[in-house]
Amino acid sequence: MDNSLFVQFVTDSTVAREGFTASYEFLDLKEACGGTYYRESGVIKSPGFPERYPHNAHCIWILKGKLHRQISLNVTTFNLEEHNNCRYDYLEI
Question: Start and end of every CUB domain (predicted)?
Answer without folding.
Answer: 33-93
